[in-house]
Amino acid sequence: MQKTDIEIAREADIKPITNIAEKLDIPHTALHHYGPYKAKIELDYIESLQKRSHGKLILVTAISPTPAGEGKTTTTVGLGDGLNRIGKNTAVCIREPSLGPCFGIKGGAAGGGYSQVIPMEDINLHFTGDIHAIGAAHNLMSALIDNHIHWGNALSIDSRKLDWKRVLDINDRALRHVVVSLGGVSNGFPRETGFDISVASEVMAIFCLATSLPDLSRRLGNIVIGSNFNDEEVTVRDLSGDGAMSVLLKDALMPNIVQTLENNPAFVHGGPFANIAHGCNSVIATDTALRLADYVVTEAGFGADLGAEKFFNIKCRKSGLEPDAVVIVATVRALKQHGGVLAKDLQEMNVAAVIEGLSNLHRHISNISKFGVPVVVALNRFTSDTDEEISIIKNSVNEKGVDVIECNHWSDGSAGVEDLAYKVADLADSGDSKYNTLYPDDMGLFDKINIITKQIYGASEAIADKSIRDLLKSWESKGYKHFPICMAKTQYSFSTDPNLKGAPVDHVVPIREVRLSAGAEFIVAICGQIMTLPGLPKTPAANNIGLDEDGLVKGLF
């Protein structure tokens, strides 16, 4: 019987985290331990590394996700192990999993098969408490806002124009729209508000873009929570909340180091959603890894139209990081689904559907080329894939001047990804990367939205009500014109319709709402019906998770 991910992880020969840190020459005195197998890296030690040069940065992204699965995180981990296998000093950088997907439909985010980061249960559940700290800092600010209004409202905050919700790290649709402060005078002034998932919080976005504790505090203070009766912005700093929020986050900001199944170093830190936020692990973790390793493999959430676009246009733009190579992950099964095949029929050979679904892969390859970074396609092979289907994919992609490398890291670990490792190392070392952003800082905000929708999504235009356009203009006049755009859109399609597969063209992208993230220093554009607090499916993954007779976690994936 095929072993589950959690069974494989539990059988691993896990090493003390001090042994793993030694591979990067991190002294034991720089580690802040969370048991024998997890640690944070002290910020003072990170500061001492700032004069070191960066290694090579490799981004792993994917085609538009399908229920068939693509294996992006698994490929990230497997490629990191593969590069170490061929003698390259390599670290992996991925995001911390959110409890929402773990207990919902997607499951965990620690990789799979024989390409995982461990300890798997810890990483997928509470880990070192970073996401809890982010939720506490966010909700502290929520409490300070309502408390300020209750005790006289000296800042004249207009409660009808508050943009600051509450958060929790669980999918709970019942909390999307709520009324607070019911129950009489002692409980404050009733108002409508709601909850977002913690990983969609601006605090999470700031956490992942901050370069130091002072930078974190500065950004937290800049958060705009709403406006007063004169329509003037009110910030966290105005409410004196930035100091206490920083205190709650000071330990969390230290990057976490764990290991892969093959005992190679992995940084797991930060976790913004890519279909709502910018979908990349923390800048401080990536920067630290680049100063300690010769190669760093990182990922960006969901397909390249979301995570990779934001990695280039937000994370790299804001941090000064420059990627050297990109890996796009695809599977025959996923391409069939983009070609119109139903999930129940994916085991059957269907060359026509593969050819039809290749439009999605080609669009992602074309999009990556617009950022000037060399690319290779990693094809995760399943037992049901036929040589004919794989040949069609290789020939089609090769015609575009891009290589396709078959990978078997899920079943074989680093041994199944050697060919990809050699290719990626060659790309990263070639010096061919000419990284550039998609749009300049000084372009108008709605023009930036249109650039993304046209050049990345293949749309004819973005549309928005006059009130949204006027709001964007007002933010430009207040000094926010230079901010990049963070698109919040369904991950399942280039369009805003999750059922529209392949590579649709000339569709329209409706902008339902825009949000100012003055601390994170970007503008969020919410498209279509995307939710900032997901709900649970009919049969949540939580229903199959529990403890066995030995008190060990079962059902987690």
Describe the model.
By secondary structure, the chain is α/β, with parallel strands linked by helices. The protein folds into three domains: 5-128 and 252-429, P-loop containing nucleotide triphosphate hydrolases (Rossmann fold, 3-Layer(aba) Sandwich), CATH 3.40.50.300; 131-246, Domain 2, N(10)-formyltetrahydrofolate synthetase (2-Layer Sandwich), CATH 3.30.1510; 445-527, Formyltetrahydrofolate synthetase, domain 3 (Roll). Helices cover 35% and strands 19% of the residues. The chain has 19 helices and 25 strands. Strands 1, 2, 3, 4, 5, 6, 14, 15, 16, 17, 18 and 19 form a twelve-stranded mixed beta sheet that branches. A four-stranded mixed beta sheet has the order 20-22-23-21. The relative contact order is 0.16.
Write a concise keyword list for the protein shown above.
557 residues, alpha/beta, Rossmann fold, Domain 2, N(10)-formyltetrahydrofolate synthetase, Formyltetrahydrofolate synthetase, domain 3, twelve-stranded mixed β-sheet, four-stranded mixed β-sheet, 19 helices, 19% strand
What do the pLDDT scores average to? 96
CATH architecture of the largest domain: 3-Layer(aba) Sandwich
What is the rounded Rg?
A: 23 Å
Which range best describes the helical content: under 10%, 10-25%, 25-40%, 40-55%, 55-70% or over 70%? 25-40%
The CATH homologous superfamily of the largest domain: P-loop containing nucleotide triphosphate hydrolases
SS-based class: alpha/beta
Major sheet size, sense and barrel closure: 12 strands, mixed
Counting structural domains, the number is 3
The helix tally amounts to 19
So what's the oligomer here?
A: single chain
Shape: globular
CATH topology of the largest domain: the name is: Rossmann fold
Outline the low-pLDDT stretches: none
Distance from first to last alpha carbon: 17 Å
